[in-house]
Design brief:
This protein is α/β, with parallel strands linked by helices and about 240 residues long. The strands form three sheets. It has a seven-stranded mixed β-sheet with strand order 7-6-5-8-9-11-10, sandwiched between helices. A two-stranded antiparallel ribbon has the order 1-2. Strands 3-4 form a two-stranded antiparallel ribbon. Strand 8, helix 6 and strand 9 form a beta-alpha-beta unit. Helix 3 packs across helix 4 and helix 6 packs parallel to helix 8. The longest helix has 12 residues. It is globular, with a radius of gyration of 17 Å. It starts with a helix and ends with a strand. The N terminus is likely disordered. Bound molecules: S-adenosylmethionine. S-adenosylmethionine (SAM) binds next to helix 4 and strand 6.
Length: about 240
């Protein structure tokens, strides 16, 4: 049984959100503290679920058209709708050779019918690339992937966005882009404009990333567009 199905059965939603109590097996195996994880209401891309704010498409299409990424590294495949959307957007914009390397610690895909999609150049990995300290287990492999010629787009959408961002931002080259999901600039803004309005999850704020951004020469990119859909977007200069 896939994880989401299990969780839905275990913790039925009463308010449109699905609360995951614990990922006991995963957490005990990897020695990560048990946390309450709650998953945003699912929306779908062509029938495949994803966990994004409903207006996610236009900013990402604009970004892809602008930066023409040569590769994408995504942490947190989830149910796969987002990666399929990225794949199709790349293909529609002449970027069918752009490889998407996506990682998840769970395989949530077996019960999903992907047969209608062209999955060429999506590399699915069920693997944790981070150790307990969120250093990379195979640092050189990920670094070499990011460092190849042409723009790399890095998407942090796993459970520890601050740490994913901190670790991966150190591997970027000039003009690469790094993004983190569930971002709102500060708590006050979150409570005033997002919570109970457009998005109920804030897992990374400016105070979490300011220091590493200065250290790594990362500046805002398409800030206004992405703030609306709770992504932080930075370019390395
Ligand atoms: C919010 S969901 C991802 C949503 C997906 N990007 C989307 O837009 O639909 C978070 C996912 O991150 C995965 N995850 C958590 N820690 C991870 C890690 N260290 N490496 C890869 N995936 C991880 C979880 O299993 C979960 O499926």
């Amino acid at each position: 049984m896939n994880r989401e199905k299990h969780l839905l059965e275990t913790f039925p939603t009463i308010d449109g959100k699905t609360y995951i109590q614990s990922l006991d097996e995963f957490n005990s195996k990897l020695n990560i503290e048990i946390t309450m994880q709650n998953i945003p209401p699912n929306i779908e891309y062509k029938g495949i679920k994803l966990q994004q704010q409903k207006d996610y498409q236009v900013p990402f299409i604009d970004l892809i058209v602008k930066i023409k990424p040569q590769r994408i590294l995504e942490i947190g495949t989830g149910l796969g709708g987002f990666v399929i959307f990225l794949r199709e957007t790349l293909n529609e914009n002449g970027l069918s050779n752009t490889l998407i390397k996506t990682y998840d610690i769970f395989d949530l895909k077996p019960e999903i019918d992907y047969s209608v999609f062209d999955l060429k150049n999506i590399e699915y990995n069920i693997e944790n690339i981070f150790n307990e300290q969120y250093d990379l287990i195979n640092h050189d492999y990920i670094k070499d992937f990011i460092q190849q010629d042409g723009v790399t787009l890095v998407l942090c959408d796993g459970y520890k966005k601050k740490l994913e961002f901190k670790t991966l931002s150190q591997l970027l080259k000039k003009n690469d882009i790094i993004m983190a999901h569930d971002y709102v600039k500060d708590k006050k803004t979150f409570e005033e404009f997002y919570m109970n309005k457009i998005w109920d999850w804030c897992e990374i704020m400016d105070s979490d990333i300011n220091e590493i951004c200065v250290e790594q020469n990362l500046i805002d990119y398409m800030k206004e567009e992405f703030e609306k859909i709770v992504w932080s977007c930075k370019i390395k200069i």
